Amino acid sequence: MARHADGSAGDANYGAIGTGYVSYRQPDPVIAAFIGRYLGDARTVLNVGAGAGSYEPVDREVTAIEPSASMRAQRPAHLPRAIDATAGKLPFPDASFDASMATFTVHQWPDLRAGLLEMRRVTRGPILILTCDPAELDRSWLAAYAPEVIAVEARRYPSIASITDALGPHAEVVPIPIPLRCTDGFSEAYYGRPERLLEPGARLANSAWSFVDPSVAVRFSADLGRDLANGTWDARYGHLRAEASFEGSLRLIVGRR
């Protein structure tokens, strides 16, 4: 797959959709705590598909890989500059890092297995993959309002088995509860705050919306806006507003040697 004009290497063009990404996609402390726990005592960490730097630990020596110039430009000053490279061809010798991680990125990779094998090649210890289980995406109320978006996500996210198979027999799959006030605005983060998905920027920060016809967003906004105004959404899903967390599709996959 050819890279986009800004260097994006996957199917999503972050030069077009990623300009306001950090306004909606901030690392959530609950999710970050899981990542920190499974990184263990690793001091050197490779972050592949690092984007604007979400979930990069600041108490470790991090090397970031990000092909999109738009995303590299949004990295805050306190994080290291990201290297322009892709998962399938990492520019490092074997066993260069104590651990490696990839968050919300494997669904963008043209060759998932090649990228994971490259991560294993350059990593001495654990490999952490934060992703969503495509088989569980329909747990979200979004499936009733924008089934096209859920269908796109289900096609793009690799199966959990395809990731664990590449990582080897010692891979562990950890379900991650999504907190009600989740600051990382992937679609399920708004399970109890549906109004947020009426914001175009919130949808744009989820790449699946860029793969459906614009009419889907128009219909979605009209239907959800109407149902929020007349109480239909709350009658069906209002209990979610008081749920401290949501057991959705979010998974942390940990591969060990």
Layout of strands and helices, then pairs:
Blueprint: H1 14-17, H2 21-24, H3 29-39, E1 44-48, E2 61-65, H4 69-73, E3 99-103, H5 112-122, E4 127-132, H6 142-145, H7 147-156, H8 160-167, E5 172-175, E6 178-179, H9 200-204, H10 214-230, H11 232-237, E7 245-246, E8 250-255
Helix pairs in contact: 5-8
Which structural class fits the helix and strand makeup?
alpha/beta
Please give the order of strands in the largest beta sheet: 2-1-3-4-8-5
Rg over CA atoms: 18 Å
Helix content: 25-40%
- Low-confidence segments, given as residue ranges, are none
Gross morphology is globular
Individual helix count: 11
Order of helices and strands: HHHEEHEHEHHHEEHHHEE
* Rounded mean pLDDT score: 92
Number of strands: 8
- What is the distance, rounded to the nearest whole angstrom, between the alpha carbons of the first and last residues? 30 Å
**Biggest sheet descriptor:** 6 strands, mixed
Strand content: 5-15%
